């Protein structure tokens, strides 16, 4: 069995656990069973998305894969998403996305609603989360966002003069080499969570966060 086939089977099993039918939107959106998630839904979760290019030149972003892990790095959600528009550029060298991954992916409306419910009321960790939330067409309260690309102490300790890349801070703080070629949204979400946890104590006691508590 190939690696891609193993991933497809794994994703199918996860969706089955969530009791979601990829061919239709639930009649009552409130009935998406979060209690059936495969692992514990902790108060702190990390999100990462992979995107493909759409539009006349393939420069517009469209969601192709979404991954969410809990604070222990356990996978809550990991799904390929059915294209909403014709794909002009799969960006495979970076995204790792191939046509067969998303051809039978889950409907965007189902994924969006699932993600909305999973992240609601929780601390959302990630790297450059603005991009992920944009392709999901979702918002999240700023006081509950922990973006490793925007937290200044991370950039300072990484000796970055601009916005640090996830790859660079994963190497700096975790000693891990990620994004070596094709990206993996589960790996990236886990890296963001681990970096957040290193800084969590000071981060959670920062004026920006405490003023909203």
TrEMBL record:
A biological-process GO annotation: rRNA processing
Lineage: superkingdom: Eukaryota
Pfam families: RNase_T
Coiled-coil intervals: none
GO cellular component: nucleus
GO molecular function: 3'-5' exonuclease activity; nucleic acid binding
Keywords recorded for this protein, A-Z: Exonuclease, Hydrolase, Nuclease, Nucleus
Domain Exonuclease: 43-205
Compartment annotation: Nucleus
PANTHER family, per the entry: RNA EXONUCLEASE 4, RNA EXONUCLEASE REXO1 / RECO3 FAMILY MEMBER-RELATED
UniProt similarity note: Belongs to the REXO4 family.
Name this protein carries in UniProt: RNA exonuclease 4
Taxon lineage: Eukaryota, Metazoa, Ecdysozoa, Arthropoda, Hexapoda
């Amino acid at each position: 069995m190939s690696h891609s086939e193993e991933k497809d089977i794994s994703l199918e099993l996860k969706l089955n656990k969530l009791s979601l039918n990829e061919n239709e939107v639930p009649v009552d959106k409130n009935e998406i069973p979060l209690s059936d998630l495969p692992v514990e839904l902790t108060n702190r979760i990390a999100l990462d998305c992979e995107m493909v290019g759409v539009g006349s030149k393939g420069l517009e972003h469209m969601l192709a894969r979404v991954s969410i892990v809990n604070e222990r790095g356990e996978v809550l959600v990991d799904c390929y998403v059915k294209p909403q528009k014709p794909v002009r550029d799969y960006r495979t060298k970076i995204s790792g996305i191939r046509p067969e991954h998303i051809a039978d992916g889950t409907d965007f409306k189902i994924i969006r609603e699932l993600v909305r419910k999973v992240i609601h009321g929780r601390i959302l960790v990630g790297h450059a989360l603005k991009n992920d939330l944009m392709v999901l067409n979702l918002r999240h309260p700023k006081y509950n966002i922990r973006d490793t690309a925007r937290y200044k102490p991370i950039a300072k300790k990484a000796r970055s003069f601009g916005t640090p890349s996830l790859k660079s801070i994963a190497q700096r703080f975790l000693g891990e080499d990620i994004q070596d070629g094709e990206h993996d949204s589960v790996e990236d979400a886990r890296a963001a969570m681990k970096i957040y946890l290193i800084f969590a104590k000071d981060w959670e006691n920062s004026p920006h966060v405490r003023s909203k508590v």
